[in-house]
């Protein structure tokens, strides 16, 4: 009994220390975010002139009002929403069909294509930027949302295929066989049987695509040449591009406003995150 009690006490102490360590790490990770929030609620003074504090001396929403009234924030927001939604629809639409085919059908070259996709995804995107820029310039697609949607969808399709294929592998084939016996066609099988079962993977993958496009900076600032065509990432860059008008409190306020929609989406789908990502890692 004494040994059992000692083991329980040791286990509780280990858990307490582990929880304390995790809470400390979480707080340290939140410090930059809390500082940015504090800076956004402060005045228009320089960020480097004041000490490090997590609460401003005088709370004001002046910076948020300036972002809305003096900068084309809502234009940047609408551009980001259009690009993110369009990319998500295109990428997920192609990826669902492709990942289901890779999961269920054993055609020649299947494994080779999957490995090739994985290798292509290993190369950094910046390597293809110059070639894509020349191609878009020839096709007169610079400063075009359609061109960026094609680039983003092509980039995220590989991740989407691999993640959803792993989830499709976990769905019992017997369910589909029973549906075929009942007379379900291939499209009905995918739409009415498989997709409802794969909802966590589809939702999580779609949100990952959304977050990628929402935060993407390199292609957005390279291919979108007009200030009114900028996404939120490009708009944040525009705020800091001029040394004479640079304002870190204003930039912090814009960053907080950019992060809020994604945080809202993330909290709405967090119940799907664990099942959608872990099942997507199953080896096919």
Order of helical and strand elements: HHHHHHHHHHHHH
Helical segment tally?
Answer: 13
Biggest sheet descriptor:
none
Q: Which homologous superfamily in CATH is the superfamily of the largest domain?
A: MetI-like
End-to-end separation in angstroms reads 48 Å
In CATH, what is the class of the largest domain? Mainly Alpha
Transmembrane segments: 73-102, 114-136, 148-168, 189-214, 248-269
Keywords: Cell membrane, Membrane, Sugar transport, Transmembrane, Transmembrane helix, Transport
Domain ABC transmembrane type-1: 77-269
Protein name: Carbohydrate ABC transporter membrane protein 2 (CUT1 family)
Question: Could you describe the 3D structure shown?
Answer:
The protein has two domains: 2-63; 71-281, Orthogonal Bundle (MetI-like fold), CATH 1.10.3720.10. The chain is flat, with a radius of gyration of 24 Å. The chain contains 13 helices and no strands. Helix 2 (62-70) packs across helix 12 (248-268), helix 3 packs antiparallel against helix 9 and helix 4 (110-122) crosses helix 6. The chain is 76% helix and 0% strand. The chain is an all-alpha fold and 284 residues long. The longest helix has 39 residues, at 2-40.
């Amino acid at each position: 009994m004494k040994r059992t009690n000692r083991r329980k006490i040791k286990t509780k102490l280990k858990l307490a220390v582990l929880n304390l360590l995790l809470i400390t790490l979480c707080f340290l990770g939140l410090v930059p975010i809390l500082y940015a929030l504090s800076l956004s609620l402060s005045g228009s003074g320089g960020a480097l002139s004041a000490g490090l504090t997590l609460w401003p001396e005088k709370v004001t929403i002046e910076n948020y009002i300036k972002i809305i009234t003096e900068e084309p924030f809502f234009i940047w927001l609408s551009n980001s929403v259009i690009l993110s939604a369009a990319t998500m629809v295109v990428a997920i639409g192609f990826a669902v069909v492709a990942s289901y085919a890779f999961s269920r059908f054993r055609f020649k070259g299947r494994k080779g294509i999957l490995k090739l996709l994985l290798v292509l995804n290993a190369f950094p995107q910046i390597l293809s930027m110059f070639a894509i820029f020349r191609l878009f310039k020839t096709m007169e697609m610079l400063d075009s949302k359609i061109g960026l949607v094609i680039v983003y969808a092509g980039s995220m399709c590989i991740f989407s295929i691999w993640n959803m294929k792993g989830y499709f592998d976990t769905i019992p084939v017997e369910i589909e066989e029973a549906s075929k016996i009942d007379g379900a066609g291939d499209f009905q099988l995918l739409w009415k049987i498989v997709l409802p079962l794969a909802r966590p993977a589809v939702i999580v993958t779609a949100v990952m695509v959304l977050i990628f496009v929402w935060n993407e900076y390199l292609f957005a600032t390279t291919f979108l040449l007009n200030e009114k065509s900028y996404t939120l990432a490009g708009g944040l860059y525009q705020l800091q591009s001029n040394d004479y008008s640079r304002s870190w409190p204003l930039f912090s306020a814009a960053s907080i406003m950019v992060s809020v929609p994604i945080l809202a989406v993330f909290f709405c789908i967090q119940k799907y995150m664990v099942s959608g990502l872990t099942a997507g890692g199953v080896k096919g």
